[in-house]
Amino acid sequence: MASQELENILDHYRNPRNYGELADADIRVKDSNPLCGDVVEMHIKVRDGVVEDIRFKGKGCAISQASASMLTERVRGKRLEEVKDIDRQYILNMLGIELSPVRLKCALLSLKVLKTGVYTYLGEKLKLED
Predict the structure, then answer these.
(1) How far apart, in Å, are the Cα atoms of 32 and each of 109, 126, 127?
(2) Closest to 61 in 3D by CA, of 110, 94, 98
(3) Strand 50-59 and strand 38-47: pairing?
(4) Residues 14, 35, 110, 44, Cα dihedral to 10°
């Protein structure tokens, strides 16, 4: 494993960025990985189709929590349409280390939570426009 990438993951785990809640969040979504007990909850403030602010809470292994911290840093300021395009490879590149299939689920939990929230939000907006 690349030591610089591993240090970055550990730093995000020990000092998570954007940790906490947003009282006025437009999106609140939570999910877990029942196999290992990881939990990630995201609160997102959207303005004009852009992620204006984002926070996460959670518990679990270093990979799941660091992934959530790193992902929140990267999506702030992005349009929701851009967020929808983030995929598994984006997360793997972001982490920069090889992952076992079990750890892959840990790494992808934050992406699953983020996308569930964005798609639900956009779907509800569409219903309101009809």
Answers:
(1) 7, 27, 27
(2) 110
(3) antiparallel
(4) -100
Contact (Cβ atoms closer than 8 angstroms) between residue 109 and residue 64? yes
Q: Is the pTM of this model over 0.85?
A: yes
For residue range 53-111, what is the model confidence (pLDDT) as tens digits? 999 999 999 999 999 999 999 999 999 999 999 999 999 999 999 999 989 999 999 99
CB 44 within 8 A of CB 25: yes
Measured distance CA(47)–CA(31) in Å, rounded: 24
Domains belonging to the chain, first-starting first, are 3-124 (3.90.1010.10)
